[in-house]
Amino acid sequence: DPAQTAFMSHRIREAEGRGETLTIRYEWVPLDAISRHLRRAVIVAEDARFYEHRGIDWHALREELRYSGDAVFRWTDPADLQALVDAVRYYRENRDAVRGRSTITQQLAKNLYLSPERSLVRKAEEFIIARRLERFLTKDRILELYLNTAEWGPGIFGAEAAAREYFGRSAASLSRDQAAALAATLPHPLTSNPA
Questions:
Q1: CA atoms within 13 A on the CB side of 80
Q2: Tens digit of pLDDT at every position of the chain (195 positions)
Q3: How many Å apart are CA 147 and CA 59, to the nearest integer?
Q4: What angle do CA 98, 101, 147 make, to 5 degrees?
Q5: In this structure, are residues 43 and 186 in contact, taking their beta carbons and an 8 Å threshold?
Q6: Which residues contact 86 (CB under 8 A, 6 or more apart)?
Q7: Are strands 25-26 and 156-157 parallel, antiparallel or unpaired?
Q8: Residues 112-121, buried b or exposed e (16+ Cβ, 10 A)?
Q9: In whole angstroms, what is the distance from residue 88 CA to residue 27 CA?
Q10: CA 66/CA 143 separation, integer angstroms
Q11: Terminal-residue alpha carbon distance, the chain
Q12: Quick one: which of 9, 39, 134, 172 is 20 to 30 A from 27 by CA?
């Protein structure tokens, strides 16, 4: 269980750059100590095919970036590589219109090891790390890591800290409505208030 993530370190450095001090609120809890409502809400909101893909949702990429490769991407398949190059080209030409569609595993890779920077290099690193996470960890462990390291507000990381901050209760006791409000916060945690 990580004591701190690259994303937390990034937020601390950002605050220091502004001459501020950021206090990180973060408390690790096991997956079974997080409300099933929150687990479901996050999967529905962030990555509906979480249990079906292997780190990269090629169906979502097909929709968003006009990816024309196979549903199961292979680095050794020239057609898949060409489809990936075409998708990257489409992204570069239509960057402002592309929403993102990162999987939970990709978001975990970003949270643990990378930064919020938006670049093709960072996205490539995210893809590689996500595939490795999927290779070595179970889906439940990936979900546990994500729910414990996701940013839920300024200095608020993890479901337990978010539940206590916004609702004054543990992540295990979140109601369905509270879980939905927290899940809705994830795309814009610094400007959203689930309470």
A1: 9
A2: 899 999 999 999 999 999 999 999 999 999 999 999 999 999 999 999 999 988 888 777 777 777 777 767 777 888 888 888 888 788 777 777 666 678 999 999 999 999 888 777 888 899 899 999 999 999 999 999 999 999 999 999 999 999 999 999 999 999 999 999 999 999 888 888 888
A3: 24
A4: 145
A5: no
A6: 66, 67, 68
A7: parallel
A8: bebbeeeeee
A9: 38
A10: 28
A11: 28
A12: 134
In the structure encoding, which two tokens stand for residue 186, read together?
């994830």
Spell out the alpha helix ranges (H) of 94-189.
104-113, 120-136, 139-149, 159-167, 176-185
Distance CA 192, CA 118 (A): 20
Residue type, 184: A
